[in-house]
Amino acid sequence: NDTSMQHRNLNHMTREERFSEAMRRTLYALKVLLPREGWTPVGPEMKYLARAIKEFTFIIHAGVFIPCIMSYGTNEQIAKWFPLAADFRIIGTYAQTELGHGSFLRGLETIATYDRANQEFIINCPKITAMKWWPGDMGKSANHVLLMAELVIDGKKYGMHGFMVQIRDLTTHEPLPGVTVGDIGAKLSFESVDNGFLYLQNVRIPRENLLSKLSEVHPDGTYIKKGNQRLMYGSMVRVRVNLIAHEIVMPLAKACTIAVRYSAVRRQGLINPSKEEVPVLDYVAQQHKLLPQVATVFMAHFAAKQLVKMHHDYSLEVEKGNTSQLPELHALSAGMKACLSEQGAAGAEIVRRACGGHGYSCGSGLPFIVNRMLATCTYEGENTVMQLQCARYLIKCADQAKKDKLTGSVWYLSDFSNMSCTAQTFGDLQEPSVLVKLHERRAKCAVQHAGKKMQNMVKNGTPAHDAWNMMATLLINAARAHIMQYVVGTSVTYISELSCSASLKKILTQLCALYALHNINSNCGDFVKFGCLTSAQCDLAQEAEFNLLKQLRPDAVGIVDSFDFTDDILQSCLGAYDGNVYERLFEWAKQAPMNKTEVHQDSYQYLQPYLHEGRDVLEGRGRNSKL
Ligand SMILES: CCCCCCCC/C=C\CCCCCCCCCCC/C=C/C(=O)SCCNC(=O)CCNC(=O)[C@H](O)C(C)(C)COP(=O)(O)OP(=O)(O)OC[C@H]1O[C@@H](n2cnc3c(N)ncnc32)[C@H](O)[C@@H]1OP(=O)(O)O
Ligand SMILES: Cc1cc2nc3c(=O)[nH]c(=O)nc-3n(C[C@H](O)[C@H](O)[C@H](O)COP(=O)(O)OP(=O)(O)OC[C@H]3O[C@@H](n4cnc5c(N)ncnc54)[C@H](O)[C@@H]3O)c2cc1C
């Protein structure tokens, strides 16, 4: 209810206005919402932040830069930089990606050379491809970067390390000497974020600015490793774990709220010719577009909660020096981020398109969501690269399963029990336990199939790296299958253990079954190819899905209302709680800058000669000219 936090009409703002407005809101919110003692907003504040996050800036500062200080800094470095960052007295970003490299980190070219005489690192981007490119908040806001660069001592390379580098003066905000920095220009989304470029030439930083939790350089240039170097990749694991809730589940829930509410209001066409026009939500085709996406929101939310818990438990173990869970967590976080962002971004577009012409209007709030979700498929690990990382782990586990009993998320790879499906009715295929088994079997077969193909190629003389490259599509499918079985399995467990009313549990169970069946029906080739289902059972799976659409239709609006988004957060003429779609669209359009005047002067200036000639012809004075 604080007018300072009420959304402005962002669609009618320029990019610079949106950048400034996001800055204003974020810093105002900081003052009002967050307890000064640090970064732990609790209760309604965190709920508000998580829901309004799209309109804040400094997300990289808050969601990546600060956590990196905690992960990579020594206690002294945390004590120095965390309080400054937590109170926004320094603004930072995570500068890793370069113009020439984003996915292949061993190809990064920015160099930090140790200068023993002065006990400093000299930072250089040796060529244009080494320039840092993309980091959020870097173009105009950040005055520090957590720079990921190749450490070099006496000509020897030690790999990527994290360095704290100040890039702007804390008083004037001007770039420091040797620093060329700016905004990378317009993008598909994140209009309010100043993703930036950063060119560093002979920038000197103190030896103490190497974040030294995992390794350090002594004054004489001696290099000391202090832990599992793969922890250097730890920030990316954490962001992948966190972004699922914030950037996939939340936006998809908003898109579904808008599309389902609009579909309950929008009347178009007839089902029974003798009756009146129906709400488009009564069309099974519309239900088939919307309700599986609503189910995805819940299942991704449940699976993400499990992943966050796993990351939390892992972090506690790492503090005790035990990093044994890292390979599984890396594979799962990489796979979940890739597969759920792929599903979420596709799902947001499906529900946008289901709103017809008004879904194409920015007044619906949907284009903003769709475009922003598309970025989740690229940042924090491009999806293909992430799926291949997940597959790399699965192939290793499949080999190990031949001699060991596996545990954790890959346990099913060593399950050699009879997994054939005995379903005779579509009701059998709505059973959670049957759906879990089907997904486990499909995943196991997909992993084994990819592995076998590669083994056969290698046996026939193909080098392992070529076999890997040629089977990449099968490996990606195996990663997707693995994640789907994880999402279905964790959701079934989560719902079964949830203490809630029987009616709510029934709805959640139906949504889980709908998610699983939609996945089966969208990938039935795999389920038949791997002998999980017969062709007749595939027909039953379709019947089972359609039956669930019918059962869930009456509760569709109530289910999305339970996401509890305010109109101000949704920013949608189609999804407002009161359902006054047409009045809101007209009011919104009238506010467009184009409608500030009845006659648009610039266009009239160009049109005037033609209009006057047309007037003359119509009034009999002129002749019909050929344009
Ligand atoms: C009022 C105030 C309001 C403020 C805001 C509100 C409050 C907000 C608060 C909180 C919100 C937080 C929510 C977060 C939301 C985020 C929003 C979106 C932000 C977007 C930001 C984007 C940032 C970026 O994009 S950063 C850059 C990301 N880049 C990447 O991910 C690069 C991907 N590439 C790689 O990781 C690597 O190159 C590679 C893994 C592909 C290959 O690496 P390589 O060394 O070549 O390794 P490889 O040979 O393949 O494997 C070697 C072994 O290493 C293992 N391994 C690889 N990676 C990892 C890892 N990450 N962890 C562990 N182990 C790893 C791999 O498995 C191999 O092991 P093996 O045993 O040899 O098989
Ligand atoms: C909105 C947004 C915000 C971002 N924020 C940040 C940030 O704050 N900090 C930061 O450091 N970076 C940031 N990034 C950069 C982001 O991390 C990179 O864009 C991402 O890692 C992908 O790398 P790339 O752009 O080099 O793509 P590439 O790796 O060049 O990908 C291009 C194509 O090559 C394919 N490909 C690449 N490698 C392989 C492989 N091994 N096998 C098969 N196919 C492959 C990919 O699948 C893709 O199809 C951001 C990007 C975006 C879009």
TrEMBL record:
UniProt entry tagged with the keyword Cytoplasm: no
Domain Acyl-CoA oxidase C-terminal: 432-611
Cofactor(s) needed for function: FAD
Keyword Flavoprotein: yes
Location of this chain's protein in the cell: Peroxisome
Gene3D superfamilies: Acyl-CoA dehydrogenase/oxidase, N-terminal domain, Butyryl-CoA Dehydrogenase, subunit A, domain 2, Butyryl-CoA Dehydrogenase, subunit A, domain 3
Residues in Acyl-CoA oxidase C-alpha1 domain copies: 233-395
Segments forming domain Acyl-coenzyme A oxidase N-terminal: 1-91
Broad class of the protein's primary localization: other
Superkingdom, natural source: Eukaryota
Keywords: FAD, Fatty acid metabolism, Flavoprotein, Lipid metabolism, Oxidoreductase, Peroxisome, Signal
Family membership: Belongs to the acyl-CoA oxidase family.
PANTHER family linked: ELECTRON TRANSPORT OXIDOREDUCTASE, PEROXISOMAL ACYL-COENZYME A OXIDASE 2
UniProt protein name: Acyl-coenzyme A oxidase
Species the sequence originates in: Clavelina lepadiformis
